Amino acid sequence: MLRTDVTAMNIQEYDQEAMEAAKSRFDKENAKRWAEIDPSAAFAGHLGRLTKSELADIRQFWDIRGASSLNKAQLIALLEERIPEKLAGALSTMDETKYRLLKKAADGGGQAALSFPRDAQDWTYWHSTGIVFTGSSNRKKLVVMPEPVLESFRRADTASLRETVRRNTEWIQVTKGLLHYYGTLDFNDLDRIVLPLCGPKAESVDLLNVLLDAARSDPDMVADVYGLSASWVPDPEEVRRGHRDRPGLAFRPFTKEQALAAADPNFVERGPEYSAFVDFLKANYRMSRAEADEIVEECVLNIQSGCHLGESLEALQEQLEVNEIRLLQGITDHLAILHNSTRQWVLKGHSPNELSRSRKEAAGAAGNGQLTDIAAKRKVGRNDPCPCGSGKKYKKCCGG
Q1: 193: which DSSP letter?
Q2: pLDDT tens, residue by residue, 317-339
């Protein structure tokens, strides 16, 4: 018992130390990010405040090759020359959030005072570009665009660029909405599924460049060598494996409007099954509707990520006191109904109910022809192959 207590104490102390260390790193980064700055400094002066490693990150961002052997002064001179030249290409992949920040700085003659949280940005992203620099002057937090970059931006800032930025923003939002339903999409799927929703002018290489740039700074998307995933997907490879295990199952189609709606970070499909579960929790526990909704929303996320019914129930019991058979049965029933009505990542955006209806419709269609698929009409047993096409037993898959 003493050993357990000591171990628990050590873990708690370690967690506390880790939190303090993380906070210390954040404070140091924040202090450097908003240190005193001379807004009128030359481009080379702003670059000179950075370390050689930070300058190398900027060189890598712009894919400037053959410069690894340069000293710091030479690297600064190279970046000072090449960034304005390459800026137009980078602007063509940006979304409205990034464009608005640059436009604000340009309209201010190369600098703009920031208003938080309206001007919230991923400053790590901007720090890696060398396009703008952050700091404080006269107790105001500023973003500064050096003169050569400002001139290049003004030349590129045309009606055509603004239309491209609007298009890019829509592409990103459509993709984020689809990732809400699919969890992850490899690059081939991005071409095949996202492009048709983006209009006839969409090109594969343009779409890919826009999405990869977005993933550098958007907290809702993560890119890897295989494709893009929603950032809250705990194991993208597991979801991809679920997709590969169902080669005969097509990704559920969604309209552009549906995808754009699902791109909202607060989006949750609140169907009748969802609302009924919320009503049950509110009626049986001393909680507000908002609190009950939050619990059911967490259940949906667990189900999306592949938790079986038993795992979802176990997670729920950690939050709720279930001391009556009536409550346990009610929660289990509502959770099972929610499980079957929730679109799941490994099911390519389908819900188990949708797959069941499709199977019944297929069986009915077969009954109208010359052949009758008796197996398709029977009830699926727990040890039968799952009808979703995964190759697993029903009890280990959709019926888990």
Answers
A1: I
A2: 898 998 899 999 999 999 999 99
Distance in angstroms (rounded) separating the CA atoms of residues 222 and 230: 6
Least confident of 22-36, 48-62, 74-88, 126-140: 22-36
How does DSSP classify residue 67?
Answer: -
Euclidean distance between CA atoms 48 and 77, whole angstroms: 10
| Beta strands 133-137 and 111-113, pairing class | unpaired
Nearest to 400 by CA among 324, 358, 347, 329: 347
Q: Find out whether 353 and 399 touch, Cβ atoms under 8 Å.
A: no
- Amino acid identity of residue 156, one-letter, is A
C-beta of residue 310 within 8 angstroms of C-beta of residue 291: no
How is residue 178 written in tokens? 């689809």
Q: Distance between the two ends of the chain, CA-based, in angstroms?
A: 36
Do 230 and 149 contact (CB within 8 A), yes or no?
no
CA 236 distance to own-chain centroid:
11
Count how many Cα atoms sit within 13 Å of the Cα of residue 78 in the half-sphere of its side chain.
19
| Cβ pair 58, 25 in contact under 8 A | no
**Which positions ≥6 away from 97 have C-beta within 8 Å?**
121, 169
CA nearest 297: which of 274, 320, 281, 279?
Answer: 274
Model pTM score: 0.84
How far is residue 361's CA from residue 355's CA, in Å, rounded to a whole number?
A: 10
Q: Are 196 and 246 spatial neighbours (Cβ–Cβ below 8 Å)? A: no
pLDDT digits (tens, 9 = 90+) for 198-224: 877 778 889 999 999 999 999 999 999
CA distances 227 to 38, 124, 293, Å, are: 41, 22, 32
